[in-house]
Structures are given as C-alpha cells and as structure tokens.
C-alpha cells in the first residue's frame, strides 16, 4: 500500500503505536531496495496484516528518502505527497531564523503546516500555532513535534485557516507563515491568484497580521509581486526552490537571493536599475553562470566586482571575465571557440577538439539543447567539453569550451 493522505485511521494508529514504531526501527536496519520488496513483506506478514506490512515498508522507505531533507528523518513520520512538498531542512532553518530575527516578540502562525517541515524549525525558536485541514497530516506533524521534543511549543488546529480568518476567529500572532497549494486538481499553477488560497486572501490575512511570509513558486512574475512586499529567491543544492513574499518587518529588502552553499548561506541584493555594464566576449575569456536564485533576483553587480566581470548581454545572465576566478555562487567555463550557430560546424569542431562527452547549456534561445544531443557526432574516446548556446543581441552563438572545477552530472550526456 501507499501511505498517502487517504490512509485510514486504524492504519495510522498502528504506525504511530509503540508496536509500529518498534517495527519501523527494526525494519530500517534492513536493505529496502525494490528487489527485496517481496521477502521483506513476507517477513512482515508473519506478524502483521498485509495492510500493516505495506504501511511499514512504505514508511521505512519514506524515512530513507527523507534523509536528503531532514537530518532527523529516522525518527519522523511522512506521507509520500507531504514529503515531496516539505521544505528542505536548511531552508526551513533559514526561514525560521529570518522570522525570529525580524518579527516582533510572540507566537507565529504556521498556516498549512503539513507534516511539519517549517513547523519544526519555527518551534525551535518560537511558540507556534499550526493549522492544517488534513487530519492525517496533523497527526503526523504532532508525532514529529513530539519526536523532537517540541510538543510544549506547538498548538495544533485542524481547520481551514481561511474560514477562521473570515469568521474572525483566527488567533492573533506576532507573525505568520503561509504555504499555499501550488497544485490544484493535480495540476501545477503558475500565478499567485491561482494558488489555494489565492493572493487576494493572503493580502486580507496581511491586514490582520502585518508581518507575513508567503511561500510561492520560484518563477513568480515581477508584475504579480505586491508593491508592499519584498521577494526573496531561495536556492538549495543548485536549484532555485522557491520565492518568498515578505511583508511588514519581514520585508527587509526589496528583492534578493539567498543561496545555500557548502559553507553556509550567502545573500545578494538585486541590482534594481543599476545593472552591471555589458562588455566584449573573446576566445580565452571565462564565462560565469550565476546560481539560478541570483538570476531570478537580478543580483549581478557584486559578483561582477568580485570576478572582474561584465555582462555578456543586457538580457542574458552570463558574466564574462578575462581572468580565471571561481566562486561558490557561479559555474565557470573557459571559452576556446566562438561561432555563429551551425550544427555541421559544431560537429567538426567537437571532433577536432576530441570532446567525447559534452555538457550542453543554453540561455536566451528558444530551444532545449538536449534536442540536439542525438545529432552530435562525437569521437569514441577523448575528454569532456561544454557547448553553450546563447546570443548577443540578435546573433545566435555557440561557445565551445570546458568547465572549470569539474563536470556537472546534471547536464552531461554521453553519445
């Protein structure tokens, strides 16, 4: 079975019971790869029902998957969908610290707490009143709060907070954090008003609780950002995961990027109207691709100063420098050749340079570079290279070179 939001109460009771918890601890010591599904279930069914055995195996596997998001995953409880939606722990800690630093004293509302991704981080700093409409998620969040010893810091309310707001019964608090649904009827939505609840209701909430944070999609359109809000783009593991609308005291800046690196968080302010200058591109130059959160925030000025770089084009988020420097907020490539786009020429040059494996990247062009991969003719052996498809003005370019600092497994392909 799959442990989802529709889990029946009896199975949930079993998973959270002392017997279920002990069985989970024992099960987690075993290999749970797909090839072992049948023997694991056969062993479990000697002691438990088929439904209970399936729930135990699913929960144990979810805990293994959750390690990437939660350092305490072995003690916590999940559902498949809630785990996919949960905030990664470094982001949750970053956000909780921001709220704790800039909100007035007092409790925080967590509106749509799910299984507790943000809740656990908030409760380590403040008292929290946590709302969720789903009874299974509330119960799992309660179990997770207890697992971390935070039960005295959290009050749970199983209710639709928008109805409580409309009825005038929503508790007052020093600040609030809302995580609207960005999937409606199983489909991803792309505007703030299409979220559930929509932006209009969130702005009504902000009238009651001025210091508010709202989690939104990373591709939020500039025109949708309310005039009174600041927007933070958050990147983790090289991916821009989300944008946060901050209101009240929490809007300490207008637009900025926060990037989680190996050495901690780095913040860069958006350039506003003062973007860096555009400069030339030549063979032997170094091209830098900023972290996607910096691109969304338009935060290039400080990086250009640090890297002695300029923009490739006013509309293209590539930085160009004549000197070789690396930085944790960019990927860096040395450019060996610059050509107008031509597939036949590209194949000849890749053969000549002996690039057996190529990384394909693009910015500013209306096609996906992977569409070309099957049309590349690469030598049977050789070294890795990179092809960057981009433009300057109306000219379509292909830049051939190599990555500085190793290969990117996400964008490599082999013919």
Protein architecture, described:
By secondary structure, the protein is of the alpha/beta class. It folds into three domains: 9-66; 85-252, Rossmann fold, CATH 3.40.50; 286-414, VC0802-like, CATH 3.30.2130. It is built from 13 helices and 19 strands. It has helices spanning 9-16, 18-27, 37-44, 50-66, 80-85, 89-102, 117-123, 135-147, 161-167, 199-208, 292-297, 301-307, 343-353, and strands spanning 108-111, 128-132, 154-158, 175-178, 183-184, 187-188, 212-216, 230-236, 239-246, 255-261, 264-269, 286-290, 310-313, 316-321, 330-340, 355-362, 383-392, 395-404, 412-414. The strands form three sheets. The chain has a nine-stranded mixed beta sheet with strand order 3-2-1-4-7-9-8-10-11, sandwiched between helices. α2 crosses α4 (50-66), α3 (37-44) packs across α4 and α6 (89-102) crosses α7 (117-123). The model is unreliable at 1-5 and 409-415 (pLDDT under 50).
């Amino acid at each position: 079975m799959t442990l989802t939001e529709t889990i029946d109460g009896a199975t949930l009771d079993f998973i959270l019971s002392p017997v279920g918890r002990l069985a989970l601890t024992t099960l987690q010591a075993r290999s749970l790869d797909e090839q072992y599904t049948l023997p694991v279930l056969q062993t479990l069914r000697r002691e438990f029902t088929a439904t209970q055995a399936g729930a135990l195996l699913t929960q144990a596997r979810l805990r293994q998957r959750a390690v990437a998001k939660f350092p305490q995953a072995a003690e916590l409880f999940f559902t498949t969908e809630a785990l996919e939606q949960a905030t990664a722990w470094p982001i949750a800690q970053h956000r909780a610290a921001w709220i704790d630093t800039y909100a007035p004293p007092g409790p925080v509302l967590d509106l749509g707490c799910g299984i507790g991704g943000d809740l656990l981080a908030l409760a380590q700093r403040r008292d929290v009143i946590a709302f969720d409409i789903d009874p299974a998620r509330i119960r799992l969040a309660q179990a997770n709060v207890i697992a971390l010893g935070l039960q005295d810091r959290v009050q749970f309310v199983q209710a639709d907070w928008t109805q409580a707001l409309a009825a005038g019964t929503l508790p007052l608090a020093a600040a609030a954090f809302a995580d609207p649904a960005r999937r409606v009827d199983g489909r991803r939505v792309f505007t703030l008003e299409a979220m559930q609840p929509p932006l209009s209701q969130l702005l009504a909430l902000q009238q009651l609780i001025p210091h508010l944070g709202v989690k939104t999609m990373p591709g939020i359109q500039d025109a949708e950002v309310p005039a009174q809000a600041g927007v933070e783009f958050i990147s983790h593991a090289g991916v821009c995961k989300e944008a946060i609308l901050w209101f009240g005291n929490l809007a300490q800046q207008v637009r900025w990027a926060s990037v989680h690196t190996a050495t901690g968080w780095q913040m860069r302010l958006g350039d506003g109207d003062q973007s860096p200058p555009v400069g030339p591109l030549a063979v032997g130059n170094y091209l830098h691709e900023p972290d996607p959160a910096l691109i969304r925030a338009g935060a290039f000025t400080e990086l250009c100063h640090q890297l002695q770089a300029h923009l490739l084009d006013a509309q293209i988020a590539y930085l160009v420098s004549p000197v070789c420097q690396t930085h944790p907020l960019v990927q860096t490539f040395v450019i060996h050749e610059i050509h107008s786009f031509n597939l036949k020429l590209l194949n000849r040059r890749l053969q000549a340079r002996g690039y057996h494996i190529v990384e394909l990247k693009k910015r500013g062009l209306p096609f996906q570079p992977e569409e070309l991969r099957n049309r590349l003719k690469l030598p049977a052996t050789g070294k890795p290279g990179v092809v960057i498809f981009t433009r300057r003005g109306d000219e379509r370019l292909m830049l051939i070179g190599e990555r500085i600092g190793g290969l990117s497994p996400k964008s490599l392909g082999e013919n």
